């Protein structure tokens, strides 16, 4: 008997386009697309630095890399930013348009807090030009165990917003439980999934295949150094390793999109006033 179901349109991987083709589409604000792997459907609200933010009907926002892997009107598409007319513009390390002969603003009352020195140095290297133009100061906390108390001492309010970037902010983590205690509407706490900010640097930029997995309970940074065969005796060795890693970061393209979107979100939040 002949196979009556040989042409079943649902057979195989339905997410793959026919003939392996994906149509390129220039994005525009308000365009509704689906990311089929997660099933998330949302309108495009922002795009920058190789990532796009989608907002669903409940107001939840997720960030995805631009490119293939989306559906539009039931068809697979590759999202790309719209063409810009005119000559190429000079860009900062964050991908923003560079502005010449503009003095840094007087520091705002609003601030961005990050967990440690390395976080602050990475944010400064990539977003420093943008932050100076906006008058935003970044400070580091040496951990977030006392985050609710830190927020209270900062006394956030209108014109005095606080943005906080937290490492390893994933469901069920210690950090997520601490962040949930902050409910002031003038404070925005966001985070990335990495155990340490080092992991936010793309492995390819550092010249490695992947960041190693370090057993729970072991000092993560020293474990990384040991796995690479680098000196890992004291904090001087850690500092030297970070200096090497940071030297490999020249722009936003060297960072994981999971960090890019969160830092941009904080900058937008603290400059709304």
TrEMBL record:
DUF3097 domain residues: 24-82, 110-271
Q: Which domain of life is it from?
A: Bacteria
What is the name of the protein in this document? DUF3097 domain-containing protein
Signal peptide positions on this chain:
none
| One family name in Pfam for this protein | DUF3097_N
Native source organism of the sequence: Kribbella pittospori
